[in-house]
Queue: 2 jobs
Job 1
Amino acid sequence: MSGIKPARRWQPAFYPFKREKFGRRLLAKTERVVKGPIFGCRMCGNCLLQETAFICPMECPKGMRNGPCGGVTPEKNCYVDETRKCVWYSIYKRALKTGREEKLLEVLPPLDWNEVGTETWGDVLMQIKKIGTGKFINGLFLKDKERKVRTGSRFSKPSDSRNGGAAIRNTILLVTVSPYPALKGGLEVVNLLSLRN
Amino acid sequence: LTPPLSASSAKLAHDIELVRPYITAVNFTDASSAHPRMSSLACCKVANDLNTEPVFQIAARDTTRIGLQSSVIGATQLGLKNILCVTGDSARVGPSPTSDLNFVDLDSVQMLWILRRMRDEGIYLDGRKMKYPPKYFLGAACSPFASDPVLQAIRDHKKVNAGAQFFQTNIVFDPAGIDLWLEALDKRNVLSKVFILMGVTPLKSYKAARYLHDKVPGVSIPEKILNRMEKAGDGEAEEGVQIALEFINSIKNKKGINGIHLMTLGWEAVVERIVKEAGLQRAAGAGL
């Protein structure tokens, strides 16, 4: 399997709802041109390629951002459009192959429609500026998981806010990790029972 | 139970009365297969009034994040305690003219996550505090035989992380595949965190079996069972019941399975027989 999957855009790309400043518009345009052919990017503005093994799930006609639905056909095709492969099947396969299984368990919040159609690279640039280029590049290649978490959390703010979605605005360049660590581990059965009665 | 197609709830009430002595709870689908029916919320109200515990199903297809939060608050007010979050069949399998196929507002995992935060932390999706958080028991659907049981287990683990407390599986017929799936869940250590209700349906006819196999997303019936149904001829309904009973017997004592979700698909009279003959107890959590 190649490093990146050349992808086509099945559904049209999004445009922002409001007119942006020239710089952001230019960046958005560049992003559209670059990420379009490579990932089939639809400019959702809430990029999660990191979590999905660099295959964009926005190709899914059901808009699933958290894993495959229960309707995948036995040929691993999409049941809405049987001519294409289930994109989540490819994501899972690649994630398992490249040891990114942990990331599949993160709950990715709903799209923040305020960001849809806007660029995501600007944020990365700002963050690089903030923590320094050297540190950023080092952070990318860190093997030690704990330190990676720290480098990551420094430039993603997990404590956000507006609709729980903005924290996930990491891009392909970021080394962010689990914005919602509290979700890991699930719930205790004892609690479930007491609630039930 | 399948909600009625039109505005009369007489048959619905009759069906609820029919199955009530044998079951723990009734599940009402929310416009399954993208065909409009009486809403799950209304059916739950009918069941609640008849002293039967309902399971309120919400399909993400028809709801936005705002509508979701309002309807669960409303459901709590009506006294509904069980909520099942599903993404819902794509509008493409429904009648035409087809609505927007590109529905992206929510999926089932995000729904579970929003609802769990509303209940446990008492906050809306945007983080504002609410005074009286709703209380409910959260469920999710799972489909062990879509793509690969092991891959589906990853997603089911994610659903548990997001807040699922019980699972209702899609219609399943193959005990061997179930083993694979349960094993994968066990490895992930989630079996103790979730109650699993297996989806069983008594096939009424060969035609119905074929339809389920070919047309309903995520359901596949092994060739062996299809052949059995075809050969049975006039006795196909009886054969269907036998297949369901055999299946229940084969999975009854498996680790991690807490109950049966009997999908009657309009054949409510069979519930009594299956529950009695399979030796299921109400306390064991036979759902419907």
Note: The two ends of chain A are 51 Å apart (CA to CA).
Job 2
Amino acid sequence: MVVAAALGLLTLASLRFPSLVPAGLSFGRLRAMTMIAAVLGWLVLSVVGGIYYILPRLTATPLSGERLASLGLISAAGVDVIGVALVGMGLGDGGEPFGLPWWYDLFVLITLVIPLVVGVRTLTGRRERNLYPSLWFALGVLIWLPVLYLIGNLPGLTPFGTVIGDLFSGWGILNVVVVGGGTGLAYYSLAKESGNPLASRQLARVGFWSLLFGAIWAGPAQIAFAPLPAWLGGVAAVMGLALPVAVMANATNFALTLGPSLAELRERPSLSAGLVGSVLAMIAGVATAAAAFRSAAALVGFTLYWEGIVILLVFGAGNLLTASWVYQALPKLTGRELASTRLANRHIRLTVAGVGGAALLLMMAGLLTGYGWAGGAYTGAFANAGEGWVQSSSVPGLLTGLAALAFAAGSWGIWTLAADVLRTLSSGRATVQEVLVEETV
Amino acid sequence: MSDLLSSLAASLNAPEAIVKRSAEARAKATGMSVEEVLAAWAGGAEAVSSPKTQVPAPEPQVTTQMEEAAVATAGPQPVTPEPALLPPTPGPEPLAPRLVVPPVLAGNPDRLGVYVFGSIALLALSLLLGLVLPVISMPPPEVRSSALPYSDDALAGRELYRELGCGSCHTQIVRALVADVELGRVTLSDTNQVIGYRRIGPDLSMIGSRINDPLALQEILVAGDGHPDYSGLTDTQLGQLTFYLWESA
């Protein structure tokens, strides 16, 4: 997460000041490196780790293939580190969102299949017959993740097929794995931490199925008015409406579950991280669905509006939703109390202000750019590659620079989370550690 | 039982009703009495589970997660402890670990298959509508084509363009929109250019018709103001990339 935040900051800064980055690196490469570090290296590992944490607790069954699971996590971390280096050295294929070479995708894919094997084997042997909402989301993540990754790296597609596949994969991973996985973990940590029963199982059901319905439709919206079948825009707009329904249902369920515990948000970072993360996911979901309508898509297509949403999902919602289970589970796993609630609260505040601010500024820059293009500001006169709209136009350029500054604050928040975790591990006050054991039957 | 229940609820910091329901659920699942379960949770009597099969009980769905929460923090169980995972770094000694038995509730059983097949079905539906059908049913070009006759050098340059991630900042597509009207002819589905994802820099689908001097194009690549510096490319690579852009006209 430390590297991901640093790369994210450099990537955003390179948008406004391309000469800041070393020769050979560019926004494209930096973005791919950021996505590998943030999504595969940080959030996917956090979500899978969280799933491994809740599975035995909610199924009353030991994790099936614990060694395989550990091996998978360690090798995934190694694969991600090497992947960042490969793209940085210019050995990537330039695709999105990760841009890894096709032969390396196979290694990544293996590390993504292992959690599916472990998860399904554990679930099929479960003794607890009740399937908690957290387990629905876990199952959805485990099934969708390897398939989405595969789709994003299918060889031999036409230029349009490649772009559609990349966007399908990218948005699917962001919405299902990052938001869905984080939401599933937050369902567990919020109920456990607050001691309150889940407010509504039906609402959780709506949240889960709607998320799967609406996950991938930002992709077709992003390239609206390309020579694609005419029906696709309509389908994307309608199906995409499921996304805000999903995130609103989950955020509402979280708020209702917390109920009286809402007053304790300041003292319980696990609760505040989960709730605030779900609110950021809700904002991103609404912004995504709004941009899927043809009139809006014509305006924001190919602009930084979409980057704002990506940043909000990855560094905002994904960050806080996964932090919710980290804050809840870390003391139980390590036998040490969270080192500093103050640091945790600072992490949450800086994330909201920094990442949320950066996302908002980028979305505004995207809208202004879109209006400028629609008004004829973007014409063939922009011939030189160095005279792109972001650099040459004062207002969106200024907003992009401000977004980088805001993101610096968000990065500081993410580093604060890392510092809190490290301090907990090294010097947290002793508390009772939970050791999961199998009941003798 | 009420004293034991009260003290246990107080120690767990949970409502008595929840602790009681959890104990009843545990008792049904294990064949023990509620008192035995409570005593075991309080650290007293041995809780010996029987092999009795679980009997579904009409537990309110909304309380199941809390029941799990109460059970999961309920105290020592008569099982062999596993070695605690302690951090390697020095620090205060942790307290004795709490042994936690995962819950076995008697709630409404959900069918795993519904979620497995539902997830797969929705993934397949998304795949069909969002990828397969759009790709196979793209409108074919009728009168004209967007496929450009690139030279071999330009085709090598296109690979380089792709690998360098140029498509992250430049598009090569002209949409049927007012915003794109001065960029050139509308791109058709048979294009052989790299479509791209966003326009941080200008669209390059017909850049060769706007800058018809290859040297001027090359200069932008290595020293363009505001453009990433690609002077690290070999002369051959630079030439191939320039040809690709120049032939995009």
Note: The longest helix of chain A spans residues 159-194.
